Amino acid sequence: MSTLSRFFTLLGVAIWMAGFNHNLQAQDNTRVQTLLAEADKLTASNALEPAMDKTREALRLSPSSIEAQQRQINIYFLMKNDKEALRCAEEAIDRNPDAPDLYYLRGVINNSRGKYSKALEDFEVGLSLKPGGNEYKYYMGRGVSHLNLLEYENAMSDFTMAISHNDTLASAYYSRAMTSYEIKEYNAAVTDFLKALEFTKGNAALYFNLGMSYYRLDEKDKACPYFHKACTLGNNNACRMALMECAKGLPTVP
What we know:
Layout: H1 3-44, H2 48-61, H3 66-78, H4 82-95, H5 100-112, H6 116-128, H7 135-148, H8 152-165, H9 170-182, H10 186-197, H11 204-216, H12 220-232, H13 236-245
Helix pairs in contact: 1-2, 1-3, 2-3, 3-4, 3-5, 4-5, 5-6, 5-7, 6-7, 7-8, 7-9, 8-9, 9-10, 10-11, 11-12, 12-13
């Protein structure tokens, strides 16, 4: 075989191998996406260990997948394993320093650990990287950090920013209401608690805090139905308030 023939033969093999490797990579990517979709379904049903197994398999196929790394961090966090979630978040950030959602996840973990100043740094870095489309999450996280640091003005500003990016976010209205309550702006608290109820079924804490806001405004007739509702949902403080402050037979919240 001539040198020229050998060259074209080797070139053909190289082209074929490139196509073969491309097809393998495409198959792996498809499998990774399937595994992550399965992990999401398992996570939604609180089957966290099987979800983690799916995520680990995705990471085995594609160790550099940011989506898979995010799932792993989130599942560890849902497992209440903050130590492992933080370790994975820091490793992922080292590998992908320009991925804003990784800073968001680390910020959430730091808030959970009570490291509010560190969380603030994470959310700020994430925002500086222009996350696009989900900025409200970063403002919410940052607002929670400020609220826990008793920085009420900054917290109020961030929750308002979160609402400006997503005006159906019940947690943002609730958090802003709690901030208003802390600074004794009870009318504003009532407005936001009621707004939160437009986007969620409500829970014992929401009903109790709404009742307390009305109570602080000396509107006991409006407060008591929410105390009764919160009491039926298991809030002991609401039960005590209903017992001490509310007449029997007052209507409850449906």
